Amino acid sequence: MDPLTQGVLGAALPQATRRKVEVGLAGCLGFLSGMAADLDVLIRSGTDPLLFLDYHRHFTHSLVFIPVGGLLCALALHGLLGRRWRLPFARTLLFCTLGYATHAVLDAGTSYGTMLFWPFSDERYALSIVSVVDPLFTLPVAVLVVLAGLRRRPMLARLALVWAGLYLTLGAVQHQAARAMAAEIAAARGHQPSRIEVKPTFGNILLWKTVYETPERFHVDGVRPGVLRRVFPGTSIARLDRARDLPWLDPDTQQARDLERFRRFSDGFVARDPDHPDRIIDVRYSFLPTSVRGLWSIELSPGAAPDAHVRYRTHREQARDSLGRLWSMIAADGLAGPQ
């Protein structure tokens, strides 16, 4: 999730386990350590634009790396803060490790995919029960954590953890309801999907994007499970067929290898951008749940050298264009449709 959310949840756990006098110190160390795992974004290459995809939520997010991550945070922060506060190193290590431990678990709740069991498995786990940014999750936790530190009341941090747990549980309930709605949509169309994916849309767990796969196409829709149950019919797009869509692509080139890396990262949910034939998108991610306008893509070039990499592009401008439509769907007023 976003750095603030990771930080405040990282602060809440050590705060919740401490005596009153240490709540503020534990929160500061937990806050900084809770964000530390995302330093993997610094693993980049000037020549390989997909390297950061390979290593984001990789070893720094593995459960077996938690003691190492906690130790590295403690070594960095003890000299800066721990000694100034006259904390024993063991106490700094404890606070940092508890804060670091929350990061991977929380990230696994999103849809992006986290290598929880590296190096034993390269599988990316994604529960898809919360958005990467969700103010209704973050703000109550942040307020309770700040108050816990200011008032030296561990109980407030415990309430923050309870709120986080309840919200994620509600997200799991919504996930299952959205998945059931996606299956109903497919059945109503006479489709027998081989896979169904559902994920919350940006900033909420009320409106969900559903993607199901048939032999030739991906079908996307928006659903709003719960009390104000609504279906927002979307659109469909042809699955990527390299022989058909990219007949010029030599399988022995770097671009072909990059395409396979992107396919693995996207769990096979890849298609050719309908507006840019040389771009390949991850169908799961768009700002509107009814849309196949990808938030990111790779761009291939027919005239590129055999050792040339693809280009990685982001398309976040659609967020500015579609915010009003997204809100109307969250509010279930039915004003938004496919785009």
Give an overview in words.
It comes from Thalassobaculum fulvum. Keywords: Membrane, Transmembrane, Transmembrane helix. This is Metal-dependent hydrolase. The chain crosses the membrane at residues 23-43, 63-81, 93-113, 125-148, 155-173. Strand 5 (270-272) and strand 6 form a beta hairpin. The protein folds into two domains: 3-170, no CATH class; 189-330, no CATH class. The chain is of the alpha+beta class and 339 residues long. It is 45% helix and 13% strand. Helix 1 packs antiparallel against helix 2, helix 1 packs across helix 6 and helix 2 packs across helix 4. The protein is globular, with a radius of gyration of 22 Å. The strands form two sheets. A four-stranded antiparallel sheet has the order 1-2-3-4, with helices on one face. The relative contact order is 0.11.
Task: Give keywords.
disordered C terminus, 2 domains, alpha+beta, four-stranded antiparallel sheet, 339 residues
Alpha-beta content class: alpha+beta
Compute the CA-based radius of gyration.
22 Å
Can you give the mean pLDDT?
A: 94
Number of domains: 2
Shape: globular
What is the number of strand segments? Answer: 8
How much helix, percentage-wise, in residues? 40-55%
Strand content: 5-15%
Number of helices: 10
Largest sheet: 4 strands, antiparallel
For the biggest β-sheet, the strand order reads 1-2-3-4
Runs in which pLDDT lies below 50 for 5 or more consecutive residues are 334-339
Give the distance, in angstroms, between the N- and C-terminal Cα atoms.
27 Å
Write down the secondary-structure element order: HHHHHHHEEEEHHEEEEH
